[in-house]
Design a protein that fits this description.
The complex is a heterodimer of chains A (about 240) and B (about 325). Chain A is an alpha/beta fold and about 240 residues long. Chain A has six helices and 15 strands. In chain A, the strands form three sheets. A nine-stranded mixed β-sheet of chain A has the order 11-10-9-12-8-1-6-7-13, sandwiched between helices. A two-stranded antiparallel sheet of chain A has the order 2-5. In chain A, strand 10 and strand 11 form a beta hairpin. In chain A, helix 2 crosses helix 5 and helix 3 packs across helix 4. Chain B is of the alpha/beta class and about 325 residues long. Chain B has eight helices and 17 strands. In chain B, helix 5 links the parallel strand 13 and strand 14. In chain B, helix 3 crosses helix 4 and helix 5 runs parallel beside helix 8. The longest helix of chain B is centred in the first third of the chain and has 15 residues. Chain B is globular. The N and C termini of chain B lie far apart (about 45 Å). Classes of the chains: A alpha/beta (about 240), B alpha/beta (about 325). At the A-B interface, helix 3, helix 4, strand 9, strand 10 and strand 11 of A face helix 3, helix 4, strand 7, strand 8 and strand 9 of B. Strand 11 of chain A pairs antiparallel with strand 12 of chain B. The structure holds flavin-adenine dinucleotide and adenosine monophosphate. Adenosine monophosphate (AMP) binds next to helix 1, strand 6, helix 3, strand 8 and helix 4 of chain A. Flavin-adenine dinucleotide binds next to helix 6, helix 7 and helix 8 of chain B.
Chain lengths: ~240, ~325
């Protein structure tokens, strides 16, 4: 089985979010970058499937040279090789076009992604890639089993789950509990250094949107505290002040 | 401006988030046509007039009673072409998101999800504000293509109802077998409950609740408030509660009017799922719990003592 895993290079979930250059650039000062947590689930499931059924796992990132340590980490976790499309991932359609161009004609049985990137939170790249390649795209996928050319998946919907059956190839946006995150071991880290990482130039310059600028939310006001025996006062505040009851 | 709004239903009722999508379309100005798929009563569809739709296209093919992504893509794209829509508006959801992604490529439209405010169309450009970094910031983006798709976040607009009534028109879309080649074999869904992503009030419990046997305390408060219940990640990891109730960075992102957090410490990953709530109440026995920094109202105390009292106090006001 040939699997392509698309990973993002994103600020750690505990990062302080700030902007520079007149609110047009993300401030990377002191920020630790990681594989997107959902992409990490996709990668873990891909490695499990390869270990169980044979095949290969290729990781793909659309990003500048600064993402290479993140790509190497994915190689250390168990991917066989990697491709970096050398471009700023400025827009979902732009990223989808690059991923589709890399995948086109390569015969991947599965293209696994995260349910969403945690910087842009678009939740859109998988559907776009599916439509460009003319194959199904499902997200968020919580369970993925393949047998022969067929797959069974569980997809989260509001208030529950939906179970589906479909033929490969397809695109899946993954989330827990599809697999457990894998931590690279020493051997993985050593071997990742020499695994192939190919750099390709973008295949298309098409974008759907243009960034104008960033904003931070207004700071929270002061908190009002109540003693455990003042819950009536709290209810009054919710009713008369916040007007939410 | 010609606006098409995709509306979703749940158990035969139009979802609140879809009513918001219609109201959002109406507030943008222009003519609003809604498209509904599957079996929904016509009274429910006419009622979309109250939120600003003039017409509702109804594709009632039985096979559309399940949310099949490809078939929905096909029908909605055909509806957009039929009415010559400039903009498609829909609510962010597990169905709306994939459908909008497919349509954007199919019809060559600019797509933006997690939209939090009405577009700014001054000066000929079309700019929207969207939430990014899991609610920790916003981006203003301009949509460059002629056709545009906006997937809106809950509470992007306050609904103002009128007494309008929409005309309902049958919509016969062309569907092929290939539109149904991904088979939905089963759906497991909590019925009758308030859906967490749709809820106006959410009561969540964390590890401080000690065990699943204590969840009646959370449920009683939720019931008194007409709220949905949520939880922190460890709670769903330990199977105290189902996964679809887990709120946060890796779970459901909620934007209710009121979020009540009980026995949740307020880790940054949990806050990422609740930071677009209008008001937050935190009940925690530890005065140093980080959640208090993100809250509007707080009680330092034992959940097992405070919550039942709060439930009674709320019941008393009803
Ligand atoms: C990549 C990543 C993603 C994550 N995503 C999420 C996510 O989406 N959602 C999420 O929730 N977490 C997420 N987490 C986990 C997160 O970091 C925290 O571990 C988690 O939110 C803690 O859950 P908790 O507050 O229920 O438990 P704890 O941190 O153990 O807090 C329990 C709280 O209960 C209080 N308490 C105890 N007893 C009582 C009592 N009797 N009365 C009142 N209060 C009491 C304590 O003072 C404490 O503050 C993620 C972590 C990582 C690394
Ligand atoms: N720059 C990128 N490089 C590779 N994959 C990406 C990139 N951006 C997004 N993706 C993939 O698409 C998924 C959804 O992203 P998004 O639509 O931005 O929420 C992510 O979880 C990744 O798997």
């Amino acid at each position: 089985m040939k699997i392509l895993v698309c990973i993002t290079h994103v600020p750690d979930t505990t990062s302080r979010i700030a902007f520079t250059d007149n609110n047009t650039k993300f401030d990377t000062n002191g920020v630790q970058f990681i594989i997107g947590p959902y992409d990490d689930y996709a990668l873990a499931r891909a490695v499990e499937l390869k270990e169980a059924q044979g095949g290969s796992v290729t990781v793909l990132n659309v990003g500048g040279a600064e993402t290479e340590p993140t790509i190497r980490k994915a190689l250390a976790i168990g991917a066989d090789d990697a491709i970096r499309v050398n471009a700023d991932p400025v827009d979902s359609l732009f990223v989808a076009r690059q991923i589709a161009a890399v995948a086109e004609g390569k015969g991947y049985d599965l293209i696994l992604m995260g349910r969403e990137s945690i910087d842009f939170n678009g939740g859109m790249v998988h559907g776009m890639v599916g439509e460009i390649l003319g194959i199904p795209a499902l997200s968020p996928v919580m369970q993925l089993d393949v047998d022969g050319g067929k797959a069974k998946i569980a997809r989260e919907i509001e208030g529950g789950k939906e179970y589906l059956e479909l033929d490969m190839p397809f695109v899946a946006g993954c989330q827990e509990p599809i697999a457990e995150w894998k931590i690279p071991n020493m051997r993985g880290i050593m071997s990742a250094r020499t695994k192939p990482l190919e750099v390709v130039e973008p295949a298309s310059d098409e974008k759907g949107t243009q960034l104008k600028g960033f904003e931070l939310p207004p700071p929270k006001g002061e908190i009002k505290m109540f003693e455990p025996d003042q819950v009536e006062e709290l209810v009054k505040a919710l009713k008369n002040e916040a007007k939410v009851l | 401006m010609n606006i098409l709004v995709f509306v979703e239903s749940d158990e035969g009722k139009i979802k609140k988030s879809s009513q918001e999508a219609v109201a959002f379309g109406a507030a943008m100005g222009g003519t609003v046509t809604a498209i509904a798929l599957g079996s929904i009563e016509s009274a429910e569809l006419e009622n979309l007039g109250r939120f600003g739709a003039t017409k509702v296209l109804h594709a009632s093919d039985d096979r559309l009673s399940q949310g099949v992504i490809k078939a929905y893509t096909s029908v909605i794209a055909q509806a957009m072409e039929k009415i010559g829509a400039d903009v498609l508006v829909l609510a962010n959801s597990s169905l709306g998101n994939p459908v909008s992604a497919h349509i954007s490529v199919k019809l060559d439209a600019s797509l933006v999800s997690n939209v939090t405010e009405l577009p700014d169309t001054s000066g000929g450009a079309f700019t929207v504000k969207r939430s990014i970094y899991t609610g920790k910031a916003f981006a203003n983006v301009t949509l460059g293509k002629d056709k545009k798709i906006l997937a809106i976040k809950k509470n992007a607009i306050d609904i103002k109802e009128t007494d309008g009534k929409a005309t309902v028109e049958k919509f016969d879309a062309t569907l092929s077998d290939a539109d149904f080649n991904v088979k939905i074999t089963k759906t497991d869904k909590a019925e009758g409950d308030v859906l967490l992503p749709e809820a106006e009030i959410v009561v969540s419990g964390g590890r401080g609740m000690k065990g699943p046997e204590n969840w009646n305390i959370i449920e009683d408060l939720a019931k008194a408030l007409g709220a949905a219940t949520g939880c922190s990640k460890p709670v769903s990891d330990m199977d105290w509660r189902p996964h679809h109730e887990h709120v946060g960075q890796t779970g459901v992102k909620v934007s209710p009017q009121l979020y009540v957090a009980v026995g949740i410490s307020g880790a940054i990953q949990h806050l990422a799922g609740v930071n677009s709530s209008k008001y937050i109440v935190v009940i925690n026995k530890d005065p140093e719990a980080p959640f208090f920094k993100a809250a509007d109202y707080g009680v330092v105390g034992d959940a097992f003592e405070v919550v039942p009292k709060l439930t009674e106090a709320i019941k008393a006001t009803k």
